[in-house]
UniProtKB/TrEMBL annotation:
Organism ancestry: Eukaryota, Metazoa, Chordata, Craniata, Vertebrata
InterPro entries noted in UniProt: Endonuclease-V
Subunit: Monomer. Interacts with PABPC1; the interaction is RNA-dependent and stimulates ENDOV activity.
Protein name: Endonuclease V
UniProt GO cellular component terms: cytoplasmic stress granule; nucleolus
One Pfam family recorded for the sequence: Endonuclease_5
Amino acid sequence: MSVLPQEELIKKWEREQDALKQQLVEGDTEEWQQTSGFAGLERVGGVDLSFIKGDEVNACAQLVVLSYPQLELLYEDSQMVTLTTPYIAGFLAFRETPFLLEALQRLKTKQPSLMPQVVFVDGNGLFHYREFGVACHLGVLSGLPCVGVAKNLLQMQGVLRSEEHLSQIRALKKGGDSFPLTVACGRVLGKALRSSDKSIKPIYVSVGHRISLDTAVQLTHACCRYRVPEPIRQADMRSREYLRKHYQCLDTQK
């Protein structure tokens, strides 16, 4: 199979992103999203990939499904995968999403009653260079509501880790407090959220698919026992543990 030069590959991916973006739904589409306390929401998913340190090709793709609001484990899937697609900034989804989709498909085949009603993705959604991060990609292709949650600020389009940004972080006094991430054109693409009273470092929440930003932020906060929402935290922990157990690997990386 021929490999496209990077410039051609980027153009191809840009066309695919643009086509998928036309299917993106930013608003709430589910009844549970519009009820007090998210009544009717019973299953929340989390996905992540963990790599062996020093190895950018072999990874553990992880899916977990937790009960809501208890946040207890209902299902987990750990699968070693080989990533053959190159990493290019802004196009991470083309490298990782196929394996996350496969995990969701395995669940749908084996235990369809445990399919998550919303999926938390370790990465950005609309808060992305091209307003279509991995959470959007996974959401559109799976058809599931998705929320992007990043642990670090993606600096872009006038949103920078400036003194003003740090001042806004300091103004977050308690868990649930947030402020908008407004890019240069004036569009709000996400929010910085103080996820718990104990954690002063925010997380960055953005819409993936079929959910509004306000609902995504509220649900993320509701799923946080610690700084990172429990579905992502469990996916991260379990993928790392899988690598340690099966590959005698003590060092893992994101």
